[in-house]
Amino acid sequence: MHNADAILYFLTDNHGLISCRARKGYKSLRRFFNVFEMGNLCEIDYSFRRALTYYHLDEVNVLQRTEFPLDFLKLFLLHFICELSLWFSRPGLPDVNLFNLTKDTLAELSGLQVHQWRRFLLEFVLRIFCEEGLLHPPYRCSRCKANTLEKSGDVFIRFPDVVLCSRCGKTSGFLRLVVQPVTSDVPDISVWLSLLSDDYVSVFINHVAGVLESEGIRSAGVLRNVLIKA
Ligand SMILES: [Zn+2]
User: Fold this and answer.
1) For residue 160, what are the CA distances in angstroms to 129, 132, 166?
2) For an engineered disulfide with 57, which of 15, 22, 23, 192 has Cβ 3.0 to 4.6 Å away?
3) How far is the CA of 140 from the centre of ligand 1 (A)?
4) Quick one: pLDDT at residue 85?
Protein backbone atom coordinates (compact mmCIF):
# COMPACT_ATOMS: atom_id res chain seq x y z
CA MET A 1 0.00 0.00 0.00
CA HIS A 2 2.67 2.49 0.97
CA ASN A 3 4.57 1.89 -2.27
CA ALA A 4 1.46 2.12 -4.41
CA ASP A 5 0.96 4.94 -6.84
CA ALA A 6 -1.86 7.27 -5.93
CA ILE A 7 -4.38 8.42 -8.50
CA LEU A 8 -5.60 11.93 -7.74
CA TYR A 9 -8.46 13.74 -9.45
CA PHE A 10 -8.35 17.49 -9.97
CA LEU A 11 -11.17 19.65 -11.20
CA THR A 12 -9.51 22.44 -13.19
CA ASP A 13 -10.85 25.60 -14.77
CA ASN A 14 -9.20 25.33 -18.17
CA HIS A 15 -8.73 21.60 -18.64
CA GLY A 16 -11.73 20.01 -16.97
CA LEU A 17 -11.05 16.86 -15.02
CA ILE A 18 -7.37 15.94 -14.71
CA SER A 19 -6.39 12.50 -13.44
CA CYS A 20 -2.84 12.34 -12.16
CA ARG A 21 -0.66 9.54 -11.00
CA ALA A 22 1.54 10.45 -8.04
CA ARG A 23 4.33 7.89 -8.09
CA LYS A 24 4.52 6.04 -4.80
CA GLY A 25 2.04 8.65 -3.71
CA TYR A 26 0.99 6.90 -0.57
CA LYS A 27 4.61 6.77 0.54
CA SER A 28 5.30 10.40 -0.32
CA LEU A 29 3.01 11.64 2.38
CA ARG A 30 5.32 14.49 3.26
CA ARG A 31 5.48 15.67 -0.31
CA PHE A 32 1.81 15.33 -1.15
CA PHE A 33 0.31 15.41 2.30
CA ASN A 34 -2.13 18.26 1.78
CA VAL A 35 -3.24 17.06 -1.60
CA PHE A 36 -4.80 13.93 -0.21
CA GLU A 37 -7.40 16.02 1.55
CA MET A 38 -10.50 16.49 -0.52
CA GLY A 39 -11.56 19.98 -1.51
CA ASN A 40 -8.23 21.80 -1.33
CA LEU A 41 -7.55 24.56 -3.84
CA CYS A 42 -4.24 23.67 -5.48
CA GLU A 43 -1.83 24.81 -8.14
CA ILE A 44 -0.36 21.81 -9.97
CA ASP A 45 2.36 21.04 -12.47
CA TYR A 46 1.74 17.89 -14.41
CA SER A 47 3.20 16.28 -17.48
CA PHE A 48 2.23 13.72 -20.04
CA ARG A 49 4.27 10.57 -20.36
CA ARG A 50 3.83 8.20 -23.19
CA ALA A 51 2.07 4.93 -22.57
CA LEU A 52 0.51 6.14 -19.35
CA THR A 53 -3.21 6.53 -18.92
CA TYR A 54 -2.78 9.24 -16.34
CA TYR A 55 -0.82 12.46 -16.23
CA HIS A 56 2.22 12.50 -14.02
CA LEU A 57 1.95 14.80 -11.04
CA ASP A 58 5.17 16.80 -10.73
CA GLU A 59 4.47 19.51 -8.17
CA VAL A 60 1.60 20.63 -6.00
CA ASN A 61 1.13 23.89 -4.19
CA VAL A 62 -1.87 24.11 -1.88
CA LEU A 63 -3.37 27.59 -2.10
CA GLN A 64 -6.25 27.07 0.27
CA ARG A 65 -6.98 24.20 2.59
CA THR A 66 -10.41 22.88 3.33
CA GLU A 67 -10.55 21.00 6.60
CA PHE A 68 -13.23 20.38 9.16
CA PRO A 69 -11.82 18.16 11.87
CA LEU A 70 -14.61 16.33 13.68
CA ASP A 71 -17.33 18.36 12.01
CA PHE A 72 -19.31 15.55 10.42
CA LEU A 73 -21.92 17.76 8.84
CA LYS A 74 -19.32 19.84 7.01
CA LEU A 75 -17.37 16.73 6.06
CA PHE A 76 -20.54 15.32 4.54
CA LEU A 77 -21.19 18.53 2.62
CA LEU A 78 -17.56 18.68 1.47
CA HIS A 79 -17.68 15.14 0.09
CA PHE A 80 -21.07 15.59 -1.52
CA ILE A 81 -20.01 18.82 -3.26
CA CYS A 82 -16.73 17.37 -4.53
CA GLU A 83 -18.24 14.15 -5.79
CA LEU A 84 -21.16 15.77 -7.57
CA SER A 85 -18.75 18.27 -9.20
CA LEU A 86 -16.42 15.50 -10.31
CA TRP A 87 -19.34 13.59 -11.73
CA PHE A 88 -20.38 16.53 -13.91
CA SER A 89 -16.82 17.32 -15.00
CA ARG A 90 -15.34 15.96 -18.20
CA PRO A 91 -11.69 15.08 -18.91
CA GLY A 92 -10.00 17.76 -21.00
CA LEU A 93 -13.12 19.86 -21.43
CA PRO A 94 -12.77 23.29 -19.83
CA ASP A 95 -15.67 24.26 -17.59
CA VAL A 96 -14.86 27.50 -15.83
CA ASN A 97 -18.39 27.86 -14.48
CA LEU A 98 -18.36 24.45 -12.82
CA PHE A 99 -14.91 25.12 -11.41
CA ASN A 100 -15.91 28.51 -10.00
CA LEU A 101 -19.18 27.20 -8.58
CA THR A 102 -17.33 24.42 -6.78
CA LYS A 103 -14.56 26.70 -5.58
CA ASP A 104 -16.97 29.35 -4.30
CA THR A 105 -19.23 26.80 -2.62
CA LEU A 106 -16.31 25.18 -0.81
CA ALA A 107 -15.08 28.62 0.28
CA GLU A 108 -18.50 29.38 1.77
CA LEU A 109 -18.58 26.07 3.59
CA SER A 110 -16.13 27.07 6.31
CA GLY A 111 -18.32 29.95 7.46
CA LEU A 112 -21.60 28.09 7.08
CA GLN A 113 -23.98 28.29 10.04
CA VAL A 114 -25.28 24.88 11.04
CA HIS A 115 -28.95 25.77 10.66
CA GLN A 116 -28.38 26.86 7.02
CA TRP A 117 -27.05 23.58 5.73
CA ARG A 118 -30.19 22.40 3.93
CA ARG A 119 -30.58 25.61 2.01
CA PHE A 120 -26.86 25.56 1.25
CA LEU A 121 -27.00 22.05 -0.18
CA LEU A 122 -30.21 22.65 -2.13
CA GLU A 123 -28.78 25.80 -3.65
CA PHE A 124 -25.66 23.95 -4.73
CA VAL A 125 -27.66 21.17 -6.41
CA LEU A 126 -29.93 23.68 -8.17
CA ARG A 127 -26.96 25.77 -9.29
CA ILE A 128 -25.13 22.77 -10.68
CA PHE A 129 -28.27 21.83 -12.65
CA CYS A 130 -28.23 25.39 -14.01
CA GLU A 131 -24.54 25.33 -14.88
CA GLU A 132 -25.07 22.10 -16.78
CA GLY A 133 -27.91 23.66 -18.77
CA LEU A 134 -30.58 21.38 -17.34
CA LEU A 135 -32.42 24.16 -15.60
CA HIS A 136 -32.85 27.91 -15.95
CA PRO A 137 -32.09 29.94 -12.80
CA PRO A 138 -34.90 28.86 -10.58
CA TYR A 139 -34.96 30.11 -7.06
CA ARG A 140 -38.47 31.59 -7.08
CA CYS A 141 -41.48 29.31 -7.10
CA SER A 142 -43.08 29.52 -10.54
CA ARG A 143 -46.53 29.56 -8.93
CA CYS A 144 -46.48 31.58 -5.70
CA LYS A 145 -43.18 33.43 -6.33
CA ALA A 146 -41.84 32.52 -2.91
CA ASN A 147 -38.11 31.85 -2.66
CA THR A 148 -37.95 28.07 -2.84
CA LEU A 149 -34.67 28.06 -0.92
CA GLU A 150 -36.25 29.89 2.03
CA LYS A 151 -38.54 26.96 2.66
CA SER A 152 -35.59 24.59 2.36
CA GLY A 153 -35.56 20.84 2.14
CA ASP A 154 -38.17 20.17 -0.51
CA VAL A 155 -38.22 21.47 -4.08
CA PHE A 156 -40.14 20.29 -7.14
CA ILE A 157 -38.53 20.65 -10.56
CA ARG A 158 -39.79 20.28 -14.09
CA PHE A 159 -36.91 20.77 -16.48
CA PRO A 160 -35.91 23.12 -17.89
CA ASP A 161 -37.68 26.04 -16.29
CA VAL A 162 -40.32 25.23 -13.68
CA VAL A 163 -39.46 25.10 -9.98
CA LEU A 164 -42.13 24.86 -7.29
CA CYS A 165 -41.91 25.30 -3.56
CA SER A 166 -42.94 22.55 -1.16
CA ARG A 167 -46.44 24.01 -0.78
CA CYS A 168 -47.18 24.33 -4.51
CA GLY A 169 -45.32 21.30 -5.78
CA LYS A 170 -47.44 18.35 -4.86
CA THR A 171 -48.34 17.47 -8.40
CA SER A 172 -47.21 14.65 -10.64
CA GLY A 173 -44.71 15.15 -13.40
CA PHE A 174 -42.04 16.76 -11.27
CA LEU A 175 -38.70 15.78 -9.92
CA ARG A 176 -38.79 16.09 -6.17
CA LEU A 177 -35.56 17.07 -4.47
CA VAL A 178 -35.61 16.50 -0.73
CA VAL A 179 -32.82 17.22 1.72
CA GLN A 180 -33.45 15.99 5.21
CA PRO A 181 -31.60 14.74 8.26
CA VAL A 182 -32.05 11.18 9.40
CA THR A 183 -32.33 10.57 13.10
CA SER A 184 -29.90 7.95 14.23
CA ASP A 185 -26.99 7.45 16.59
CA VAL A 186 -24.50 8.42 13.91
CA PRO A 187 -24.70 11.86 12.30
CA ASP A 188 -26.49 11.03 9.12
CA ILE A 189 -28.18 12.91 6.35
CA SER A 190 -30.15 11.79 3.38
CA VAL A 191 -30.62 13.52 0.09
CA TRP A 192 -33.55 12.15 -1.83
CA LEU A 193 -34.21 12.70 -5.45
CA SER A 194 -37.67 11.35 -6.02
CA LEU A 195 -38.67 10.68 -9.60
CA LEU A 196 -42.34 11.44 -9.83
CA SER A 197 -42.41 11.15 -13.60
CA ASP A 198 -40.90 8.76 -16.11
CA ASP A 199 -40.02 11.79 -18.22
CA TYR A 200 -36.97 12.40 -16.07
CA VAL A 201 -35.59 8.91 -15.86
CA SER A 202 -33.39 9.28 -18.95
CA VAL A 203 -32.23 12.75 -17.91
CA PHE A 204 -31.15 11.42 -14.56
CA ILE A 205 -29.60 8.27 -15.82
CA ASN A 206 -27.39 10.49 -17.96
CA HIS A 207 -26.69 13.21 -15.47
CA VAL A 208 -27.28 12.28 -11.88
CA ALA A 209 -28.51 8.77 -11.33
CA GLY A 210 -25.16 7.34 -12.36
CA VAL A 211 -23.36 8.83 -9.45
CA LEU A 212 -26.21 8.51 -7.01
CA GLU A 213 -27.41 5.05 -7.82
CA SER A 214 -25.55 3.03 -10.44
CA GLU A 215 -22.01 3.77 -9.35
CA GLY A 216 -22.80 4.96 -5.89
CA ILE A 217 -21.15 7.81 -4.11
CA ARG A 218 -17.64 6.62 -3.41
CA SER A 219 -17.34 8.20 -0.01
CA ALA A 220 -19.83 5.74 1.41
CA GLY A 221 -20.57 5.77 5.10
CA VAL A 222 -22.19 9.11 5.75
CA LEU A 223 -23.24 9.27 2.12
CA ARG A 224 -24.89 5.90 1.96
CA ASN A 225 -28.31 7.46 2.10
CA VAL A 226 -27.93 9.42 -1.09
CA LEU A 227 -30.43 7.61 -3.23
CA ILE A 228 -32.75 7.88 -6.13
CA LYS A 229 -36.21 6.91 -5.01
CA ALA A 230 -38.52 6.10 -7.90
ZN1 LIG B 1 -45.00 28.10 -4.30
Assistant:
1) 9, 11, 18
2) 22
3) 8
4) 84
